[in-house]
Structure formats: C-alpha cells, structure tokens
Design a protein that fits this description.
alpha/beta; globular; 7 strands; seven-stranded parallel sheet
Length: 265
C-alpha cells in the first residue's frame, strides 16, 4: 500500500520541496496551506511530475478547520506515514515597533500554537513506523534582534519536538526537528524586502538552494536516536559553539556578527 505524507505549508518553499521529494519516493502527498491558488498550482506541478498529490485549504490556527480536514483525510487514508509540520510566518521587526497585539499573536499562533494543534489533531492517524518532522530554524538556537517572536516560537518548537519524541518513543513513532539556515525561498525574499534598513547592514546573507537543504533533511529522518537535524554548516557551527564556548564568549561573538538597531535619538 502506498504511504501517505501530510505536509503543512506545502504549497511553496521548503514544504513544496518535501512534497516533491517524498512524491518521487512513492508517497501520496497531501499538502495543507491557506492560499487556494498556490495550492492548486503546487498540486498541478506535482501531478505533472507523476506524483499523486492533493491539496486542502486549511488555516492551522482554526481548530474547526483542522478537525474538518482530519475527517476528510481520515475518510481517504487509514494512516499517515510522514507528518511534516512546516507552516510558519516571519515578520522582521523590533518588538517595540508593533502597534497592537494582532501581529504578535499572529506569529505566536501560526508558528507555535498552529503547529501543536496540527500535531495533536493528527496523532490518531500515526502508527508504529510513522514519522513526524517539525521545521524550526537556526534562529531557534539563538536570539537575534528584529526576530524576537520568530526566535521565541522556533526555540519553543525544538523543545516541543523533543518532548513529543519522548512521548512517542514507546509507540515506535519517530520525531525529528530540523533547523535550516537561510534558503532561497519566497518567504526569505519577502523577509529581506520588508526588513528595516538597520537589519540590512553588514555582509549580505548567503542562502543555500532550498532543494539542497530539503533533500539533506529528509535523508536524515531515520532511526530513533536521531532528533535534531542541522542541514546547514553555519547552523552546525552555532550548535557546536553553543556547547563548547562559555556563554559570555558566545554572546560576545554573536553580538559582533548580527546587526543591532541604532539607539533612538
């Protein structure tokens, strides 16, 4: 029987790469996203490559939509073999620059609450041998000015994934969290476009092809001993440095490496 992969945020960027790669491996792919136009385009592209694919418009922050989506999928397939929790948003700005709480809540709810709700909703469809992959970020391993909310949510996902991994070990369900570096995706290009000027100072950020990081991530999703997947060399160096360097030295180096806002006049 063909395996099934369910991917949130699967209509573009890293999520689409996951869908394409797993589809070529023989999975039936179901992508969840909010934009129906992007969903239709992505599903059509996958089908052109001979991949069995379906797309469903679903806001993962809406519990009723998630439940309806679960019922729809549960009627079609008996289990989910690979659940990829990849949906997320990013607004680069200082915490003090938010004019109201709606923008704050949007990032917290999409990146953290939505991911947790999706995992909770679809857990009943996972069985022994199933896998869960959660997309965090290199910024989940450090705090960077201008990314206050993003860093907080992505760090939370690392700990959430670690706890969920231990909850599911006895059931034979493996959980992985990946922390990619900068990738050439629509989200990254939009991030750079809307970033405040002070964030654009210093050396230009180098990106890797999203296809390269996506394939590296999926190749490492095997075995119960593996948990944190770091496909980019700069994120690996950050992880190693955080382990071996005293905290004050680590912070001193990061303070020098990453832009900081200018003092108010």
């Amino acid at each position: 029987m063909k395996k099934t992969a369910l991917i949130t945020g699967g209509s573009s960027g890293l999520g689409y790469v996951f869908a394409e790669e797993l589809g070529t491996q023989g999975y039936k792919v179901i992508i969840l996203a909010r934009d129906q136009v992007k969903i239709d385009q992505s599903v059509a592209s996958l089908k052109e490559k001979g991949i069995e694919a379906k797309g469903i418009s679903c806001d993962i922050m809406d519990e009723a939509q998630l439940k309806n989506t679960f019922n729809t999928i549960n009627e079609e397939v008996s289990k989910i073999d690979f659940l990829i929790l990849n949906a997320g948003i990013l607004t680069p700005q200082l915490l003090s620059d938010y004019k109201d709480s709606s923008g704050i809540r949007s990032q917290l709810d999409t990146n953290m609450t939505g991911t947790i709700l999706t995992a909770w909703q679809f857990l009943p469809m996972l069985q022994k041998g199933s896998k869960i992959l959660i997309t965090s970020s290199g910024f989940g391993m450090m705090g960077a000015a201008g990314y206050t909310l993003y860093c907080a949510t992505k760090a939370g996902l690392i700990n959430f994934g670690e706890a969920l991994r231990r909850e599911l070990l006895s059931k034979g369900i493996n959980v992985y969290v990946t922390c990619p570096g900068d990738m050439d995706t629509p989200q990254f290009r939009e991030e750079i476009r809307v970033s405040p000027d002070w964030l654009k100072t210093g050396s230009p950020r180098k990106t890797q092809p999203v296809e390269k990081q996506g394939r590296k991530i999926l190749k490492q999703c095997h075995g119960k001993m593996k948990f944190l997947i770091l496909p980019a060399s700069d994120v690996k160096l950050l992880a190693i440095g955080s382990k071996i360097l005293p905290r004050k030295i680590r912070d001193f180096l990061l303070d020098k490496m990453f832009p900081q806002p200018l003092p108010s006049k």
